[in-house]
Amino acid sequence: MVPVTHVFEWAEYSEKARKGLFREFGQVGAKHLVLTGQLLGLVMQKNAHAVALKQEIADAGMSFNDGHALFGAYDDLCLPFEEYRPMMISRHSLALEACALMEVKTLTIHVGNGNATYGERSVEELHLNVRRGLEALLPVAERCGVVICIENIWSPLNDSAALLDHIEFFNSPWLGICYDAGHANLMARDPGVEGAASKQWAYFKKPVQWDDNLLEKILPHVVNCHLHDNLGVVDDHILPFQGTINWEREMSLLAKAPRLQVIQNEVLPLRKGVSITDMVSSFDDLMKLYK
Fold first, then answer.
1. pLDDT digits over 31-51, tens only?
2. b/e per residue, 93-112, with b = 16+ CB within 10 A?
3. Computed over its alpha carbons, how large is the radius of gyration of the chain?
4. Residue 163: HSE in the Cβ half-sphere, 13 Å Cα cutoff
5. CB of 63 within 8 A of CB of 103?
6. In this structure, is the dihedral angle defined by the CA atoms of residues 116, 118, 123 and 128, taken in order, positive or negative?
7. I need a surface site. Which of 7, 46, 134, 255 has the fewest CB within 10 A?
8. What CATH code is carried by the domain that includes residue 212?
9. Residues 186-227: pLDDT tens digits?
């Protein structure tokens, strides 16, 4: 059984409140938390923050298990503005160092989507920028002992074909895929209304290439995963079994993933009004299908 790790929106809370929330997770049976972008930022800012976080999570009887890098138009690997790329690469390199310091073995990094901030850009140009970013970061990942996981989202830059192209090009044990079940559900079928996927593909002036077998295609390379549900239109991040994902199918497939190291709960409890108790309990139930 792979470990389950839980995400939380830490940016909304003070250090004092965070300690209490760590304890709450531990008291309801959680064993691991995600080293989120917010927490990674603290570790990268000051070593004293790393010392404090290590103590806080140990006091709660838990550990950090996987990490998620900063993301967004100026932090994704596809970034086309050359003057900002060196800092972006430096931040991701430092994030890998921070993961090693916190004994975290996987770091999810977004390759990026099409973004109006970029103006008109081709898939080919942005895909090449991702390749350049991975070329710079993989030696750092190897030195740190941390696997970079590139994530499926809902754009031609991060569908199964794009991700597998990078995996096959580098053929590195330090590069894998983060499978996001909610994102895959947005790409599984045409919902009949404008949704997240149709907007992203429209940026590139391309029809959406719907894919209801995405997990099967990338399964040999899945190293970590983000599990949450939605209704197939927007990225809701709701509890499993509250949307349209077939969880029996998902979990039975993930149980066959040869490289899988960790399962991440990526429900967003504050946004959805879900208690920590209910969230952890939901994933305890979900893991009964992992067989």
1. 999 999 999 999 999 999 999
2. bbbbbbbbbbebbbbbbbbb
3. 18
4. 32
5. yes
6. negative
7. 46
8. 3.20.20.150
9. 999 999 999 999 999 999 999 999 999 999 999 999 999 999
Helix (H), strand (E), coil (C) string for the chain = CCCEEECCCHHHCCHHHHHHHHHHHHHCCCCEEEECHHHHHHHHHCHHHHHHHHHHHHHCCCEEEEEECCCCCCCCCCCCCCCCHHHHHHHHHHHHHHHHHCCCCEEEECCCCCCHHHCCCCHHHHHHHHHHHHHHHHHHHHHHCCEEEEECCCCCCCCHHHHHHHHHHHCCCCEEEEEEHHHHHHCCCCCCCCCHHHHHHHHCCCCCCCCCCHHHHHHHHEEEEEECECCCCCCCCECCCCCCCCHHHHHHHHCCCCCCCEEEECCCHHHHCCCHHHHHHHHHHHHHHCC
| CA–CA separation, 166 and 38 (whole Å) | 27
Q: Pairing relation of β-strands 106-109 and 32-35?
A: unpaired
d(CA 33, CA 264): 9
Which one-letter amino acid corresponds to residue 265?
A: N
Task: Give me the residues paired with residue 66 across strands.
Answer: 34
Task: For residue 113, give both structure tokens.
Answer: 């989507």
Q: Cα torsion at 184, 185, 191, 194 (round to 10°)? A: -60
Domain count, the chain: 1
Residue 20, domain extent: 4-289
0.90 surpassed by pTM = yes
